[in-house]
Structures are given as structure tokens and as C-alpha cells.
Design brief:
With 198 residues, the chain is α/β, with parallel strands linked by helices. Helix 3 (29-38) crosses helix 4 and helix 6 (125-132) runs parallel beside helix 7. The chain has seven helices and seven strands, in the order H-H-H-E-H-E-H-E-E-H-E-H-E-E.
Length: 198
């Protein structure tokens, strides 16, 4: 918990100063951002190799790494100022199971090695499938944290999922037993899970 509090502190200070989050997000950092990222850990197998594509300020990768020290998390982020922030956060928190890779998803090499590829607030599912699914190993999966429009995005992306080697998409809710929907700032995470089958 102390690490998570320190991370929220960094996001709400230098994260705002560097334009990674807006000041209006500060009251929602815990519930809508950090906790709803961390609860996705329930979908990730033990000792998994995880890629966080388009990590931005470290969401969901840093909360996942804090919640699950058994994971090896690589934060994939193309923008240098964000990479600098992520590197500073990792050093300040002393997290050992996280590394930063400055790259776009298409530049990650080797492809097809990750157990899990996660993303949050990066792009529509139709684009994410092409970016994320090739990075997962066969038998691995991509987990896209989405909002209320998840089922529509899945419907619109069906053919693309199949072409990218994905199986049937599942829409799952993480953290229902841990997070309350009554609190406007704390919401369970809606996740589209797609296993790579070929």
C-alpha cells in the first residue's frame, strides 16, 4: 500500500506538471485509475511476462507490478517525456519487476513472447487487436481495459480479431468484490480478453 500511495503522490504532482494527467483527475486517481488497473491482476497467471502497451503514466503496468511482485512488467511507451517519468517513478519506488521500453507496439522485438499484453485508454479495440495480439505468444492473451462501450467494440472488431490470430473475445469485470460502484470515483474494471490461438 505504501508503494501505491507513493505512486499516486508522484502522479498527482510531477505527473500533472509534465502533462501526463490533468488536475481534474486527482480526486479520481485511486479509484478510477490505480485500483481499477490493479484489480486486472486477477486475470493474469503466476510469474507472467506482461507488456503494457501505451503505458503513458504507468497505467495499468505500475499498479499491476505493485500488486503482483511475481510478474515481469515491461512498460511500452513511445514518447520520451513519458519514458523519463516512468523511469523516475520506477527508481523512486524501487520496484524491481518493471522495465521501460521506448517503442511503439509495432517496434517491439521479439514479437509473440509475452504471456499477457495489457492496454488502457490507448485506442479503439479495432486498432489494439493489430498492435497487441501479435505481441502475445500463442496461448497468451491481450487484456484491453475498456469502458461501457466494450461489447460494441468487440462486435465491430470480430473479423479483425480472427485475422490477427485471436479467439473469441470475452468481456469480463475485475474487482467487483473489491471495488464499489456506489463510489463515483471507484469502479470495477471492464476488460476485453482475447486469447491468441494461432
Amino acid at each position: 500500500m505504501a508503494l501505491a500511495e507513493s505512486y499516486v503522490g508522484l502522479l498527482s504532482t510531477i505527473g500533472i506538471e509534465r502533462g501526463l494527467i490533468g488536475p481534474r483527475e486527482v480526486p479520481r486517481l485511486w479509484g478510477r485509475h490505480v485500483l481499477s488497473s490493479a484489480v486486472v491482476e486477477e486475470l493474469i497467471p503466476e510469474k507472467a511476462d506482461v507488456l503494457d502497451v501505451g503505458s503513458g503514466g504507468g497505467l495499468p503496468g505500475i499498479p499491476l507490478a505493485i500488486a503482483r511482485p511475481d510478474l515481469l512488467v515491461t512498460l511500452v511507451e513511445p514518447m520520451q517525456r513519458r519514458v523519463d517519468f516512468l523511469t523516475e517513478v520506477i527508481e523512486a519506488l524501487g520496484i524491481q519487476n518493471v522495465e521501460v521500453l521506448r517503442a511503439r507496439a509495432a517496434e517491439v522485438d521479439p514479437k509473440g513472447q509475452a504471456d499477457i499484453v495489457v492496454s488502457r485508454a490507448v485506442a479503439p479495440l479495432a486498432k489494439l487487436v493489430g498492435w497487441c495480439l501479435p505481441l502475445a505468444r500463442v496461448g497468451g492473451a491481450m487484456l484491453a481495459i475498456k469502458g461501457q462501450g466494450a461489447s460494441l467494440e468487440v462486435t465491430e472488431s470480430g473479423g479483425l480479431i480472427k485475422r490477427a490470430g485471436g479467439g473469441k473475445a470475452s468481456i469480463l469485470t475485475c474487482g467487483e468484490s473489491k471495488l464499489s460502484e456506489q463510489d463515483e470515483f471507484t469502479i470495477p474494471a471492464t476488460v476485453v480478453k482475447i486469447e491468441r490461438i494461432r
